[in-house]
Design brief:
This protein has about 100 residues and is of the alpha+beta class. It has a single domain, classed as YhbY-like (Translation Initiation Factor IF3, 2-Layer Sandwich), CATH 3.30.110. About 40% of the residues lie in helices and about 20% in strands. It has 3 helices and 4 strands; from the N terminus they run αβαβαββ. It has a 4-stranded mixed sheet with strand order 1-2-4-3, with helices on both faces. Strand 1, helix 2 and strand 2 form a beta-alpha-beta unit.
């Protein structure tokens, strides 16, 4: 992913509200499965990492990106954004 594409995704993510939270249980298989379905449907998702989470937001983003085969877009404070192109119904066209 180029820096221009990442910048395009960051600008799209500005208007998104975080739909998912990672809490004290951390990144469980159930959370991974739920986020996998969300990425397939939306392609770009924003996640909040709560104070009680066992890992830092940056570590959580790396873990999720590896498990979901997604691109980490950004991590600001406790919010992180992930992108993965949909196999069935691609919606976001990157430059």
């Amino acid at each position: 992913m180029t820096s221009k594409q990442r910048a395009q995704l960051r600008s799209m993510a500005n208007t998104l509200q975080p739909l998912y939270q990672i809490g004290k249980a951390g990144v469980t298989p159930a959370v991974t499965e739920q986020l996998d379905a969300a990425l397939e449907a939306r392609e770009l998702i924003k996640i909040t990492v709560l104070e009680t989470a066992p890992e830092s937001p940056k570590d959580t983003m790396e873990t999720l990106a590896a498990r979901l085969r997604a691109e980490p877009v950004q991590c600001i404070g406790k919010k992180l954004t992930l992108y993965r192109r949909s196999k069935e119904n691609p919606r976001i066209e990157l430059d």
